[in-house]
Amino acid sequence: MRCEIESVKPLIGGIVHVDRASLFDDAVIQRCLEALEDRGVLVFPRVGLSDAEQLAFTDALGTRVKFTRGPEIYEITLDPEVNDEPEYVQGTFFWHIDGVTIDMPPPKATLLSARRIAPRGGQTEFSNTYAAYEHLPEEEKQELAGLRALHSVAASMRPVAETTGPRDLERWSRMKIYEHPIVWKHVSGRKSLLIGTHADLVVGMPIPDGRALLTRLQQWSSQPQFCYRHPWQEGDLVVWDNCGTMHRVIPYDARSGRSMHRTSIAGVEHVR
Q1: What does the pLDDT read at residue 1?
Q2: Residue 111 main-chain phi, psi, to 5 deg
Q3: What is the dihedral of CA 103, 105, 109, 113, to 10 degrees?
Q4: What is the mean pLDDT of the chain?
Q5: Would you call 23 exposed, middle or buried from its count of C-beta atoms within 10 A (0-12, 13-18, 19+)?
Q6: pLDDT digits (tens, 9 = 90+) for 158-189
Q7: Euclidean distance between CA atoms 101 and 119, whole angstroms
Q8: Which residues make beta-bridge pairs with 178?
Q9: CA-based, 20 to 30 A from 39: which of 29, 53, 165, 170?
Q10: In this predicted model, what pLDDT tens digit does every residue of 206-253 receive, in sequence order?
């Protein structure tokens, strides 16, 4: 068994070099879990897993979870023959963390494999929110201590609200609002920023002030030193730490046929 992790950037990203036949070895699985904690995002170039193999690899890394409607393998696409709710995919053009607005711990990790790529656009960007917090000036860390934000589906869909109808807007407005700390203290003792377009208001702050703060934190976290943009090739598999990483996709043509298959690993800690 040979498994090497090549760092992409000092603060984020790792390329996994492993023989495909060894991918399910216990030692490889453990090495990947350790590297995921350290690198935030792992890339398996052109490994070409089938759906059955992706499900099996997900199960090897942790307990599989499904937090959206549909089959175990969730296809992410703008193809109108497959997806009749494109606004949810368009909402992922903006920074977000999966599962922050559901009644369960956010998924521990996400696995995404490329079945068909777009000729232009469609890259996925990742931001290490552990590193973004750790590199904040100490004064700003103290200012953020104890601050909490309200997260909602309605807020996450606001950037694309004009593309849908009033019935959807009214439905999103009725969905549950979640209150989370801006600084997520994990059971490991590490801290990360819990931000994204779903973070709408800061509790106890005037609305403009709170939204300005959340915008500044997104801008801070999206600096190149904290981010990695993945240029997809068909067959690529990318796994990321969903609890310490924001992500977004670069817009692409809906007619491109871009298709990504997603599975998720169950979260083990509630936001606190």
Answers
A1: 61
A2: -115, 130
A3: -10
A4: 95
A5: buried
A6: 999 888 888 888 989 999 999 999 999 999 99
A7: 32
A8: 151
A9: 53
A10: 999 999 999 999 999 999 999 999 999 999 999 999 999 999 999 999
Of the candidates 102, 210, 198, the one whose C-alpha atom is nearest the C-alpha of residue 158 is: 198
The answer to whether the beta carbons of residues 59 and 202 sit under 8 Å apart is no
User: What's the average model confidence in pLDDT over 77-86?
Assistant: 88
For every residue of the chain, DSSP letters joined together read: --EEEEESSSSS-EEEEE-GGGTT-HHHHHHHHHHHHHHSEEEETT----HHHHHHHHHHHS-EE--SSS-SSEEEE--TTT-S-HHHHHGGGS-B-TTTTSSSPPPSEEEEEEEE--SSS--EEEEEHHHHHHTS-HHHHHHHTT-EEEE-HHHHHGGGGGGS-HHHHHHHHHSPPEEEESEEE-TTS-EEE--STTEEEETTS-HHHHHHHHHHHHHHHTSGGGEEEE---TT-EEEEETTSEEEEE----GGG--EEEEEEE---S---
* Contacting residues for 256 by C-beta, under 8 A, at least 6 apart: 78, 116, 117, 118, 119, 120, 121, 122
Q: Which residue has the higher pLDDT, 141 or 81?
A: 141
pTM exceeds cut of 0.90: yes
The dihedral of CA 89, 90, 94, 100: what is its sign?
Answer: negative
Tell me which amino acid residue 46 is: R
Q: Which CATH architecture has domain 3-265?
A: 4-Layer Sandwich (3.60)
Taking Cα atoms as reference points, which of 200, 199, 212 lies closest to residue 246? 199
